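Recap for those who missed Tuesday's class. We walked through two folding examples back to back. For each one, the amino acid string is listed first and its predicted structure tokens come directly after. Nothing is annotated here on purpose, so try labeling regions yourself before you check the end of the notes.
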Amino acid sequence: MKCRLLAISPGPPDKSWLSKLTQLLPLGDKLAFLFRDTESNAHSYFQHARQLATLCHNAQVAFFVHRRLDMALALGAHLHLPSYGFRPSQVRPHLPPNQYLSVSVHNSEEASQAQGADFALVSPVFSPTSKALDLRPPLGPEGFLRLARLLPCPAWALGGLCPSRLPRLSKPAGAAVVSALWQAENPLLTAQAMLEYWGENPS
């Protein structure tokens, strides 16, 4: 995957983050978007996912659905797996080669089960502001590097990330972001600052 930055939705669609997603779309293939909504029922999620998939496709932004293989196949979308449920090795044979598969990883046991994923979201690197009830201690830069070395796929950092914190990490393959983008007054500038960490030309 060309991009280094994955924007993750903070919940069900609302005008605030949809407006900011629109501001991010000019990044094109330098951006990916994961639609994570654990509150809506399956029908509502699919209807929203279909609209967001079209929006992202038209902007050449890689679009991921959360957890649902059936919806990824129906929409031709990429798929992100949470740490619970099916393992990547169980899902990969059912997903076309041109559709990416990512997985959440929080510890060494989950890292050992990431075979088959194209990349892993390793978290929480720093304390996430988007999950107030997440009581897991942050991994920190050293913990992130330790899990990254155990993985059979590239490690992307997730959790409390912002442009000033990225340099503290040992070159993650990419960064997944929630609050730093949706709470930013200008999410495009924030995203561009993060992409510069990899020497990307965000224009």
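Example two. Treat it independently of the first, because the proteins are unrelated.
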Amino acid sequence: MELKHTISLTLSSDYKERFIAEYFQVKIRYQKLIAMCNKWDEGKLEFTPTCPRSLYADQLGYMQAYMSVLEERAKLEGIDLSEETLAHRIEYVPRVKEFRQLGDKLIQEVRELCPSREVDLSIIKLQEGVMWLGMELKRINEPNPYPNSKDPSTGNVIDKTADGLNF
């Protein structure tokens, strides 16, 4: 796991998701610092640190203590810090976006059929499905794909969707 995988949680309006992001960001940095210190101890570090090794040991200690505090708070507040839960959250948003794109592709293909009331209704229902998946992204606090949608100074300009849909 990398720091970039925690971005969507960091931007969430839900404090529990921000809490999860904070915990895993510290944990990722802690693990990277341990790896660096281990290489240093083994004489395999590819650069020469400017700080003494003892300062890094202190930093690791404080990071471990901070993670312990966050773990205790998580227990008391009922927040699941398991890597499986985080992996699910990280994989969920891309899956929803993928389904929106598949829905949009299907809409474009259905448009190529002979025009009829039934085809038009099919397109409308597919568009509704794509729209509801967009509402799911909103529900889980994904950043707004239409940043100018509520700005009256943009006039009649309608933003394209952030995920490049054509529907």
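Answers for example two:
The chain has a mean pLDDT of 86.
The chain has two domains: 3-81, 91-154.
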